[in-house]
Amino acid sequence: MRDLADRLEHLGTETAFAVSKAAADWAAAGNTVYPFHLGDIDLPTPRNIVTAMNAAIEAGRTGYCPAPGIPELRAALAADIGSRRSMTFVPEQIAVQPGGKPVITKFIQTLMRPGQGVLYPSPGYPIYESQVEYFGGRPLPYGYRRTDEGFEIDLDRLAELAPQASVLIYNNLQNPLGCESSQSEMDAVAALAIEHDLWVLSDEAYFEMRYSGSSTSIASLDGMADRTVILYTFSKKFAMTGWRLGCAAGPERVIEMIAKLNTNDESCTTHFIQHAGVAALADPSGAASLLDELRRRRDATAAALADVPGVRFAVPEATFYLFPDVSEAMDRTGHTAVGDFATAALHATGVSFCTRHHFGRPLPGEDDRAIRLAYSGIGVDAIGEGLGRLAEWVDGDGR
Ligand SMILES: Cc1ncc(COP(=O)(O)O)c(C=O)c1O
């Protein structure tokens, strides 16, 4: 038998799915599981969106449609993305995608040559590292420092690496850290991008997933619009993770090539789903109640986590993640590896979560004793119960 293609040796994955499997196996054995591991949402998609999709199917919107998206959705996205960022987009600057994730691979395929350096966050969404390496780029991960308020980008390291880079991936309102750049941090990142003439992917998957204040896009800063592609997705805001709908928004010549990749990859994003997307943008009221529920969960998680001994964390104002430092809790329960701590916690308490290691390779010298708690797939009561058990387990020194 012939071998598989060599390039697959460089393809990574979302190892977090292994955590789902461990949790599912534990539940199948008759145990209660408290799922803090998945970035999925267990709340229904707002009714108006479902109705619009059904109507689109009934109306026969079931054939192929244009590769960059139906004109109504491109126009609606251009208006919505632009107005929320104080920018102006025309429909030609929008390429509709089956989700936000394809923007990552298509951005890299369009703008990164093999051998070129790519700056990306670590911890960060693991698909950046996977795709950079798969397409033969040079990985240049940059890290964060934990502060009392959350996290800040290690700007010294970013500046040190930037001369080797052609591309920068920036995820403000960050998965897994839940953090957000201050204006001065964002300004500094943009200044580096301009100084070193970098293409920028601004992953804005969580742009509107926030409980106070307002978001700023790095694309809106002076000198950035022509070099930045925005990743936009319906997945989080409208609880539409499984629908697969998003877009790339950026300079026309880049978007044209991304749309050409659409033609090669999937022809078009599912036609009737795009009509549902138009309805979502026209009446986003369902997204507000979704955010209210996520806020309740955020508060419940923060309150219950405060009672877990040996855990240090800040409460994020955005995303649906917390990223506590668990080094003391690990010491108390007798664990030196954070993966073993996670497995022991699952078996002792049913609480399931990802660790630092699911979000890119840790950087040299980094303290990896941190976990990610996602509260998008678990209700308020279960949050209190699960974290209560975790507190008892740590308090009893892991017995
Ligand atoms: C930072 C980040 N970017 C992109 C995505 C992909 O979003 P989608 O599910 O729309 O493909 C996710 C999903 O979890 C994410 O966390």
Short structural summary:
The chain is of the alpha/beta class and 399 residues long. Helices cover 40% and strands 13% of the residues.
What does this protein structure show overall?
- There is one protein chain.
- The protein is an alpha/beta fold and 399 residues long.
- It folds into two domains: 149 residues, Alpha-Beta Complex (Aspartate Aminotransferase, domain 1); 234 residues, Aspartate Aminotransferase, domain 2.
- 40% of the residues lie in helices and 13% in strands.
- The protein contains 13 helices and 14 strands.
- The mean pLDDT is 97.
- Bound molecules: pyridoxal-5'-phosphate (PLP).
Topology overview:
Layout: H1 16-28, E1 34-35, H2 47-58, H3 71-84, E2 94-97, H4 101-111, E3 117-121, H5 127-134, E4 138-142, E5 144-146, E6 151-153, H6 155-161, E7 165-170, H7 183-195, E8 199-203, E9 228-233, E10 246-249, H8 252-265, H9 271-282, H10 285-305, E11 321-322, H11 327-333, H12 338-349, E12 351-352, E13 354-355, E14 371-374, H13 380-395
Parallel strand pairs: 1-12, 3-4, 3-7, 7-8, 8-9
Antiparallel strand pairs: 2-10, 5-6, 9-10, 11-14, 13-14
The structure holds pyridoxal-5'-phosphate (PLP).
Descriptive tags:
single chain, 399 residues, alpha/beta, Aspartate Aminotransferase, domain 1, Aspartate Aminotransferase, domain 2, 2 domains, seven-stranded mixed β-sheet, three-stranded antiparallel β-sheet, 13 helices, 40% helix, globular, binds pyridoxal-5'-phosphate
Which CATH class of the largest domain applies here?
A: Alpha Beta
CATH architecture identity of the largest domain: 3-Layer(aba) Sandwich
| Bulk shape | globular
Distance between the termini: 51 Å
Rg over CA atoms, rounded to whole Å, is 21 Å
Strand neighbour order, sheet with most strands: 2-10-9-8-7-3-4
At the fourth level of CATH, the homologous superfamily of the largest domain is: Type I PLP-dependent aspartate aminotransferase-like (Major domain)
CATH topology of the largest domain: Aspartate Aminotransferase, domain 2
Helix content: 40-55%
Based on secondary structure, the structural category is alpha/beta
